[in-house]
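User: Design a sequence. Structure:
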């Protein structure tokens, strides 16, 4: 071994933060595509003749393969067995392929009445592409979580996870604020003088970004190899081998299940909400459809600043379980305000969205770094995968539920050729998820006290 490898590679702060930048950028690209269709919902209905059920079906596709084909669980096992380099590269390629299929579906004009699996051909193909992408981006997510633990354990782990999530949120923000301007910029005016937005343009842009994100991850793999070599040189095993019986250890752990439950309940009230937030702004707060993504765009912007702040707080002071309780209370408040028929004006929606930004930062910044306190490192890939799997039931089912509720119970009159909706019932459903999340967060706090997981303790080892 060469002299310079004698020190562990992750002891170098510059190097650890640089590799974090690489993998976080890959996640940014993934999150961009995840939400790129949200601000386009009114245009999809107007230009491509989708309805809310089509949109809900398409959005739910994100979780199909993860949930029903257990792709996430296989992904976690592959991650623990084959390592982060192989799994991460595979995940990136799946994201690129899924995005390519989605682009093909949206940019192609299919014969009128063409159907596949009972849905419009275009909707089904776009959904299939999104489902493949969903496998890729979720496996990339667990891989990056494991990478962060590998490089930052005993160091600034929660801050690193917070920064990674903050970077990913930039992707969500770009989706919210760039999508409609991009679609408009590449739009065209037909012979009748009517202007048409170019819906495929932002998706093509995402495809290019995903290719760049894949290259960033490829560069990371060289550093990962070097880290393994430096751990070897120190006489440390890079990653302990994983055995199938480790799964039993994970699923018989009550703390694990409480985190998984909190995860599905909390995220069911946030990510599916984002999918409908732009439409909510138009329908309830009368925001111009062209600007509708701007207010929900504040949500990830707030999280970009706050998630690392709260992560750093957790690293230094602890109080992880308490942060999760506070975040859940805020979630209930926010969705109740959106549900109540009060102050239907844009500035009120803006204030409420900022409060949601706090909740959206508090819970993730405390929840994800808490997992390594409950589960040993060699089982982390599988543990994160199982948590993501439980979460994906919500990410898949809730958008479909909301789309169905809107289509069945919330339709108002058609105004200027556009369908209107009353969002009271969907927002009440989101608030109920908040109530359940709070109950689970309180149970987790109690379990932590009983078992001494250390969730209320600081992460940085003095
Ligand atoms: C959607 C995805 N399954 C997810 O939960 N993402 C989390 C981040 C999880 C990784 C933390 N290192 C998010 O808040 O975006």
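Assistant: Done.
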């Amino acid at each position: 071994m060469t002299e310079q490898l004698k020190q562990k590679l992750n002891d170098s702060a510059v190097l650890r933060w640089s590799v974090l930048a690489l993998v976080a950028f890959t996640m940014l690209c993934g999150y961009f595509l995840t939400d790129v269709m949200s601000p386009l919902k009114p245009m999809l209905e107007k230009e491509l003749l989708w309805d809310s059920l089509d949109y809900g079906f398409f959005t739910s596709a994100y979780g199909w393969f993860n949930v029903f084909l257990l792709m996430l669980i296989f992904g976690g096992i592959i991650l623990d067995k084959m390592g982060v380099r192989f799994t991460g590269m595979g995940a990136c390629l799946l994201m690129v392929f899924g995005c390519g299929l989605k682009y093909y579906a949206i940019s192609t004009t299919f014969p009128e009445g063409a159907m596949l699996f009972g849905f419009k051909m275009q909707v089904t193909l776009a959904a299939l592409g999104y489902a493949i992408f969903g496998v890729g981006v979720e496996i990339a997510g667990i891989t990056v979580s494991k990478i962060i633990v590998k490089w930052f354990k005993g160091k600034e782990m929660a801050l690193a996870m917070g920064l990674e999530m903050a970077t990913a949120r930039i992707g969500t923000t770009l989706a919210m604020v760039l999508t409609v301007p991009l679609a408009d910029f590449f739009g065209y005016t037909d012979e009748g003088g009517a202007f048409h937005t170019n819906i495929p343009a932002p998706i093509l842009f995402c495809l290019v970004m995903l290719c760049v994100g894949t290259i960033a991850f490829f560069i990371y793999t060289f550093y990962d190899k070097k880290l393994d070599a430096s751990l070897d040189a120190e006489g440390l095993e890079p990653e302990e081998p994983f055995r199938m019986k480790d799964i039993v250890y994970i699923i018989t752990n009550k703390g694990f299940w409480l985190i998984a439950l909190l995860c599905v309940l909390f995220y069911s009230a946030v990510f599916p909400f984002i999918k409908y937030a732009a439409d909510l702004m138009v329908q309830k707060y009368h925001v111009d459809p062209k600007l509708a993504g701007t207010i929900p765009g504040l949500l990830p912007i707030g999280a970009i600043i706050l998630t690392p702040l709260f992560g750093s707080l957790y690293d230094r002071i602890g109080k992880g379980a308490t942060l999760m309780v506070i975040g859940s209370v805020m979630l209930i408040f926010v969705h109740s305000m959106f549900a109540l028929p009060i102050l239907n004006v844009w500035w009120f929606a803006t204030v409420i969205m900022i409060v949601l930004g706090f909740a959206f930062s508090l819970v993730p910044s405390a929840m994800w770094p808490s997992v390594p306190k409950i589960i040993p490192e060699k089982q982390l890939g599988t543990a994160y995968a199982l948590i993501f799997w439980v979460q994906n039931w919500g990410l898949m089912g809730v958008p479909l539920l909301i789309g169905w509720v809107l289509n069945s119970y919330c339709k108002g009159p058609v105004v200027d050729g556009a369908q209107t909706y009353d969002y009271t019932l969907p927002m009440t459903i989101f608030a109920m998820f908040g109530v359940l999340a709070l109950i689970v967060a309180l149970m987790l706090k109690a379990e932590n006290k009983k078992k001494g997981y250390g969730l209320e303790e600081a992460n940085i080892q003095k």
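Residues 364 and 424 are 27 Å apart (CA to CA). The domain at 9-238 is CATH 1.20.1250.20 (Growth Hormone; Chain: A;).
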